[in-house]
């Protein structure tokens, strides 16, 4: 089995926010690694659900990237996009509070503007 840290001369870093020791899959965006739970992604995203449902070979090859026994899935997405997705899945209360705050600020303005005569 290969280890990502051994293969790549570029330095990879574990996310400070989204590295869960009990996670079972590692996503890599650029040089950042995220150890997360596959069920969180499969539950909310059909693409991940399909990807995680594909049977894995019982024998690992040299090309398989693993860290601490977890498969590494390289992504082509930007770090910011991946962190926003992970945050939405794990920290959804933060997103709900932001939406409520936005509505509290904007809704009165929108209602006021809608009631004005043209």
Walk me through the structure:
- The protein is α/β, with parallel strands linked by helices and 118 residues long.
- It has one domain: Potassium Channel Kv1.1, Chain A.
- It is 46% helix and 21% strand.
- The protein has 5 helices and 5 strands; from the N terminus they run H-E-E-E-H-H-E-E-H-H.
- A hairpin with a 2-residue loop joins strand 2 and strand 3.
- Helix 2 crosses helix 3 and helix 4 packs across helix 5.
- It is elongated.
Can you lay out the helices and strands and say which pair or pack?
Elements: H1 4-7, E1 13-19, E2 25-29, E3 32-36, H2 38-44, H3 46-53, E4 66-67, E5 70-75, H4 79-90, H5 92-114
Parallel strand pairs: 1-3, 2-5
Antiparallel strand pairs: 2-3, 4-5
Helix pairs in contact: 2-3, 4-5
Question: What's a quick, concise take on this entry?
Answer:
With about 120 residues, the protein is α/β, with parallel strands linked by helices.
Helix content: 40-55%
Structural class computed from helices and strand pairing: alpha/beta
Q: What's the average pLDDT? A: 81
Strand order of the largest sheet: 1-3-2-5-4
Helical segment tally? 5
- The sequence of SSEs as H and E is HEEEHHEEHH
Shape field: elongated
Number of strands: 5
- Under the CATH scheme, the architecture is 2-Layer Sandwich
Query: For the CA atoms, what is the radius of gyration?
Result: 20 Å
Poorly predicted runs:
1-9
Give the oligomeric state of the chains in this entry, treating copies of one chain as homo and distinct chains as hetero. single chain
CATH topology: Potassium Channel Kv1.1, Chain A
């Amino acid at each position: 089995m290969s280890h990502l840290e051994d293969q790549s001369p570029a330095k990879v870093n574990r996310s400070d926010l989204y590295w869960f020791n009990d996670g079972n899959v590692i996503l890599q965006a650029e040089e950042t690694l995220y150890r997360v739970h596959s069920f969180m992604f499969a539950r909310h995203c059909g693409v991940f659900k399909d990807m995680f449902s594909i049977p894995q070979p019982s024998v690992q090859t040299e090309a398989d990237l693993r860290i601490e026994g977890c498969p590494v899935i390289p992504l082509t997405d930007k770090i910011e996009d991946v962190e926003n997705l992970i945050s939405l899945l794990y920290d959804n209360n933060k997103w709900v509070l932001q939406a409520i705050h936005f509505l509290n600020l904007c809704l009165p303005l929108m209602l006021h503007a809608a009631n004005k005569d043209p």
